[in-house]
Amino acid sequence: MTSLQAPTYVPAAPTRRSWLALAVLILGVVMGMLDTTIVNVALPTIRTSIHADEATLSWIISGYALAYGLILIPAGRMGDRWGHKWTFTVGLAGFTLASLLCGLAQSGEQLIVARVVQGLAAGLFFPAVTALIQLSFVGRPRGKAFAVMGAAIGFSAALGPLVGGVLIEWLGSLEGWRSIFFVNLPFGVVGVVAALLFLPTGVAGADAKGTDAFGFVLLAGSLVALLVPLIEGQNLGWPLWTWFSLAGAVLLLVAFARWEVRQARGGRTTPLVPPHLFSHPAFTGGVVLALVYFAAFTGIFFTIS
Question: 101-138 in b/e burial notation, b at 16+ Cβ within 10 A?
Fold first, then answer.
């Protein structure tokens, strides 16, 4: 959903540096997706260690996903404006720091806050992955690069519970859950240094019309209004406010869609989600497929755990 511009480094054919850059990007993909599912298997030990209730456990998972989803679209615009290399590097550095804070958390509230920060950081660097692959590869090598990225997403998401289980079994069931966050630290440090060395520098200032701040507020409000009752509703017995919140989420989403159409027809800022994208069947079909995939594939790990 980003308007990609030509970088200062544009190889006519992939070079060794291109593949090194891809390796750095894949490392970020693996770290972000691994932390989407690795926490699920640690929930029973987290409950015992910090005396977390069901709502806290839900927020540990959903807080990450909510923050990730909120920043994902604006992060693409940030990359267009200031350079995808820098959004990737800053996001990966923030993700590494947040992983440290998660591992040091002494209460459910601290862990939730750290997970939200971790999700924001992951959502910041993830759009830069697809953008930089698009910028660094052309033709058949680009297809190979995206195939590697797709395989990394599926493999790392499926590997998360296995890695978490091994670490907890190895280090002990009471405090071993902290290792699932500490394991990110060495990889994060290596990733940040490698990103500074190998990623191509894009042209900043592409998003000349600015940021659609009001659109972001509407989108964020709709997602929060949708997810909060879904997380808290069952534990609270579905009080009246949860139904009002769900209805408000629908209204805010409709308002967001209308606002984006208005911005596309002559607003002073570029829409967060350009409506014309949905005129392409491939794009719309891909969005639906991604929705079904991530709703089922990542959700099932939480249910099984």
Answer: bbbebeebeebbbbbbbbbbbbbbbbbbbbbbbbbbbe
